Q: What sequence folds into this?
């Protein structure tokens, strides 16, 4: 009779797989905690858009005054960038750094935050949700822009700077509540903690429910029989590397293994960064970043108010900045909704071709005999084209370029390589911000738009012929190109 009785509720919950909502919820919570730092970054980067028009106005005699060259240096410091704690700890340190924000501290903050945040997303999310949650997180940068611009409509830039400095306090609190990534824990020999983290991230579930993914992580992160998996399925002999210490105890037919990885030397790290398996995907990410910066007009953002005045848009510069931020958030939301079906590469190609066409039209408007100042319809069309550029950029190239940085790099050396990629992103923006005034004098705003249009089209060509499709794939499958198909799943 006892055998026919229904199981207690606790037992039934432990033996059943969690619902889709329950699987997704902890991943959203973890990404949201990390995204508070993206919010801080967006508010920080958006501040020069308010600052430059005010401090370069000669009529503000009693306020801080900068000439155009000094203002470009101020914007440069906001974008310039300069890692053996876990990713979560690095976030907390960068959050504390931003509460003491100034030019040189900003460089440290961005360098500490950007590289591990995109890694964290890729390492905690299930392949089915990675693209969605990456787009969700990067949208917080745009939300930061929107908050700064909206606050700029009701108060001065000094108060906006004070408000933006408070967001890292919230970031520090929430970051201490989320788990470290399973693969990082496993690489440090903390297998049991890695399993607990994976259970938390997959819906506070049982060991059995995450058994297959856990085995993939073991295969991906640990050395097996004197070999380790490098990029693209190539097995590299690691006999000359530092050994991994194994301490095991047999439990039935399963060997409980505790791994303690010894510190790798400088020679090994340099070899990891300079091998073909690392340089090829890192080069692809750098190309994507460069194209993203040009197509998204990111180097022009501190000068948006002046650029909009050049087109004599029907709305003032700050209101236009708010509209652009709102439409960019809409682009991120649409990306989240369709990326699983459409996939990454088609979204990038569509966004770049659309951006190129819009930039060409904007350049033609400036070159037309009847310029926007004397034609009301051109003024409205110019506003619409700016909105389209920001919509399609946030629909495709901008969020997805960060996803690729976190997905296609080999695990060994990924930390430093990710830092190199993210630093390149902000260095290029900083150089673009600093050189924009002189470039605008040399070739004009129309020439800059045409140059960016050509780069966008070249980026679409590059995406079609060079980028792999990674949507819905495990990191181990991306790194090995799916060549290692037989992975034995060990029962817990």
A:
């Amino acid at each position: 009779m006892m055998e026919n009785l229904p199981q207690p509720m606790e037992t039934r919950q432990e033996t059943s797989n969690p619902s889709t909502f329950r699987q997704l919820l902890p991943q959203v919570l973890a990404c949201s905690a990390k995204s508070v730092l993206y919010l801080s970054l967006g508010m920080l980067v958006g501040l020069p858009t308010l600052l430059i028009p005010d401090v370069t106005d000669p009529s503000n005699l009693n306020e801080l005054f900068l000439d155009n060259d000094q203002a470009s240096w101020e914007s440069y410091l906001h974008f310039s960038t300069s890692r053996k704690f876990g990713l979560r700890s690095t976030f907390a340190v960068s959050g504390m750094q931003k509460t003491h924000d100034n030019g040189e501290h900003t460089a440290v903050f961005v360098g500490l935050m950007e590289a591990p945040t995109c890694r964290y997303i890729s390492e905690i999310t299930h392949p089915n949700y990675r693209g969605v949650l990456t787009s969700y997180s990067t949208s917080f940068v745009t939300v930061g822009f929107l908050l700064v611009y909206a606050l700029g409509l009701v108060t001065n830039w000094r108060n906006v700077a004070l408000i933006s400095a408070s967001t890292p306090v919230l970031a520090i609190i929430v970051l201490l509540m989320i788990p470290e990534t399973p693969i990082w824990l496993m690489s440090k020999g903390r297998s049991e903690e890695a399993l607990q983290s994976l259970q938390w991230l997959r819906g506070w579930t049982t060991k059995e429910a995450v058994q297959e993914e856990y085995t993939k992580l073991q295969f991906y992160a640990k050395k097996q029989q004197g070999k380790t998996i490098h990029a693209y399925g190539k097995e590299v002999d690691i006999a000359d590397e530092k050994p991994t210490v194994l301490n095991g105890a047999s439990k039935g037919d399963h060997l409980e293994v505790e791994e303690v990885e010894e510190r790798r030397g400088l020679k090994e790290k340099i070899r990891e960064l300079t091998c073909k398996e690392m340089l090829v995907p890192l080069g692809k990410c750098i190309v994507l970043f460069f194209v993203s910066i040009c197509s998204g007009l990111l180097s022009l953002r501190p000068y948006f108010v002046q650029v909009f005045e050049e087109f004599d848009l029907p709305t003032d510069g700050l209101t236009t900045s708010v509209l652009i931020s709102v439409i960019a958030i809409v682009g991120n939301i649409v990306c989240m909704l369709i990326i699983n079906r459409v996939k990454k590469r088609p979204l990038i190609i569509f966004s770049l071709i659309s951006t190129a066409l819009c930039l060409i039209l904007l350049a033609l408007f400036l070159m037309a005999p009847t310029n926007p100042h004397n034609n009301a319809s051109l003024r409205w069309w110019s506003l619409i084209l700016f909105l389209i550029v920001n919509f399609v950029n946030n629909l495709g190239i901008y969020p997805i370029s960060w996803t690729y940085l976190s997905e296609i790099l080999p695990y060994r050396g990924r930390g430093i390589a990710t830092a190199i990629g993210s630093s390149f992103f902000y260095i290029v923006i900083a150089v673009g911000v600093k050189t924009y005034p002189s470039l605008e004098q040399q070739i004009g705003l129309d020439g800059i738009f045409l140059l960016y249009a050509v780069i966008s089209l070249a980026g679409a060509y590059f995406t079609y012929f060079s980028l792999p499709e990674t949507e819905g794939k495990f990191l181990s499958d991306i790194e090995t190109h799916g060549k290692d198909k037989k992975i034995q799943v060990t029962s817990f």
User: Anything to note?
Assistant: The CA atoms of residues 189 and 259 lie 4 Å apart.
